[in-house]
Amino acid sequence: MIGISSKRIKRALLRFQFFKFLRKKMGRSNMDLLSGDDKRLLDRMDPVIMEWPDGWKRPKIGLVKDFPREKTVPYTAYWPKYERFLKNNSIPYEIYNIHTSDWLKESNRFDMIIWRVNSDPISMDEAREKIFALEVYKGKDCFPSLNEIWSNEDKVKASYLLSMKEIPTPETFISYDLEEIKEYLKKCNYPIVTKIRTGSGSKGVELLRSRKEALSFVDEVFNGGRNTYWPHQKQIGYVYFQEFIKDSLYDLRVIVLKDKFFGYRRYPKEGDFRASGAGNMVHGPIPEEALRIAERTRDALDKRIIAVDLIKDRKRGFLVNEVSCFFRVDDGIELEIDGFSGYYQKVCAEFSFIKANHWIQELTLCEILSDRNVHGTENTIIRRCLK
Ligand SMILES: Nc1ncnc2c1ncn2[C@@H]1O[C@H](COP(=O)(O)OP(=O)(O)O)[C@@H](O)[C@H]1O
Ligand SMILES: [Mg+2]
After folding, report:
1. d(Cα 310, Cα 295) in Å, to the nearest integer?
2. 180 Cβ partners below 8 Å, 6+ apart?
3. pLDDT tens digit at each of 387 positions of the chain
4. Which domains does the chain have, with CATH numbers?
5. pTM of the model
């Protein structure tokens, strides 16, 4: 367990200063950092060089750029980190504009498609429809796979999977049935948490403090819909309610990538219960219990990379609050202990800390491509059917 020590706050401030300096130097806003010739941010981290078996063919990659609707490249973009890995490892690739009308024909040029999908509902819809076609009809190897993208950024779908796999979560009530919802609101303990199905940074996560407040909420949802922070999307015809874990102090994110584990805590702002998006990230050791639950979640959901967000209940311990395959990566440090960045490596059921300085996006491609070399080139659906 850790607290917010002054040393940690100082480190966080130094990191923040570094980014401010970088942005000032380049005279750009924080949404505009990387360009073809400016690699200072990328080169902060050491390249990941993978071992490629002699004589094995390297797949031709179609690399999809994230943030397709931004005019510039945000510093949080994944594709420049993926691209650096592909270049450094001499893996043939081309930028694949999957958003144009000829995307299906264009996919013929590639063996594998790598696409960091942004988390807004439009991007998620597009990814689900296209990855389905690419995997199932065209037999393409995709990252993310159809299984990986299906429940991503959708709290309703994720909740179904977590409950089927018996992963410990806060008690969650999802219903499209008005009568059932009214009955639930008679019996539940207030306050309850309400969430929209797709949202991040705590937007769309609210407390309903009484039955009266909850009924008026439901009335809106079932009569014309309730506005969300997405301009084109209302919450209409369903509710996602959850028990309120009132003594949860922070949101602990554990990222699992094969046998590597990363993680950090996020704290809410004073007077708020919502940690995600509050900007209070704190590094330090991660309890083993959390690493093991995250690993179980990854295994149950069969994802190659997963961020498992946990909140802690006093009696039940860590509960899985959210899962996602893409998450915000700022400075590249996803685990830091005593001032050193790195990851926990699981070897023979033990976790040991390894000092390292890599972009997690590069490590991800390294693991996925190594796995592909071991398991062959069939896509994940075919692979699963054969299991
Ligand atoms: N059931 C809950 N009880 C207490 N706090 C919660 C609960 N669900 C979410 N939170 C808090 O609200 C924040 C946002 O909720 P979350 O479901 O993670 O949405 P988002 O997708 O916006 O991150 C979390 O980081 C956590 O701090
Ligand atoms: Mg969250």
Report:
1. 12
2. none
3. 344 556 566 566 656 665 555 555 444 444 455 554 457 789 999 999 999 888 888 999 999 999 998 888 888 999 999 999 999 999 999 999 999 999 999 999 999 999 999 999 999 999 999 999 999 999 999 999 999 999 999 999 999 999 999 999 999 999 999 999 999 999 999 999 999 999 999 999 999 999 999 999 999 999 999 999 999 999 999 999 999 999 999 999 999 999 999 999 999 999 999 999 999 999 999 999 999 999 999 999 999 999 999 999 999 999 999 999 999 999 999 999 999 999 999 999 999 999 999 999 999 999 999 988 876 654 444 444 444
4. 46-150 (3.40.50), 171-243 (3.30.1490.20), 251-386 (3.30.470.20)
5. 0.90
Report CA torsion sign: 315, 316, 317, 322: negative
Cα(54) to ligand 1 centroid in Å equals 47
Instruction: Select from 202, 235, 254, 282 the residue to mutate for testing ligand 1; criterion: most ligand atoms less than 8 Å from CB.
Output: 202
Question: Ligand 1 center to residue 205 CA distance, Å?
Answer: 7
Neighbours of 20 (CB within 10 A): 11
